[in-house]
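Service request form, structural biology core

Requester: graduate student, group of Dr. S.
Request type: structure prediction, single chain
Budget code: on file
Notes: please return the result as structure tokens.

Sequence provided:
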Amino acid sequence: MDDDLGTPYLHFARRGPIAWCTIDRPHARNALTAAMYLGIRRAVDRVNADPDLYALVITGTGDVFAPGGEMGGRHDDDPDGIASGLGSDVLPFSSIRDSASPVIAAVNGICQGGGMMIAMLSDVAVASEEATFRAPELLRGVADAWFAAVLPEHVGVARARELMMTARRIDAAEAERIGLIASVVPRAELPAAATRLAHSVLRAAPQARAQWKRIVNSRYGPIDHATFEASIRSRECAEGFRAFVEKRPPDWVPQALRDEGSL
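Core staff response, request fulfilled:
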């Protein structure tokens, strides 16, 4: 079976019954292009379709797991704009949430935005003690419907409001304590820990496991796709992305606060 995921920045490897999808775009700090988002979705679908594969581990390279989507417009792995033209349909979140095959997130480093959503929707997320987590969507002008539906179920409404509205960065220990992820291990032990977790999860009866997962995931709120699509096409979103690239505060920040630097 062809294991190409449609982008050079994702590597699909078979390690016995476990597939590994590694995010590897070092020159852009693993920022996820549209083709990369779509490729992660393909990785999930491939594992579910392949009788020789039983689980998927998603991880990153170096000190970055995934910082979220590409905001500088450098979708250099999609020259024809095919994936970019799909809008939010490229996102792998539904596939991860609904996957019958277990998905393990091995969070090796910086985990923000879409990367943080991948970690939350995986069946189990284990993080390196050096990992950090942040949800900067509102700083960029994005009313992210996925975060609105998923984050409060993990950490509670009050904490979700604080994390989203301040975009505060938290370390792996706090992420574990508040229920964002399941466990933390030393960085050198992360691959082995993820492999052990995958093996442990695969001891559960697959139909019962999938049904139980479906019931638990029904606790998440509905995804307001219309609001999300409108938001990523809004003037605020365009300004938020532009301000990030230009390393300045967006124009909605009060003048008195702009000397505090970029967000």
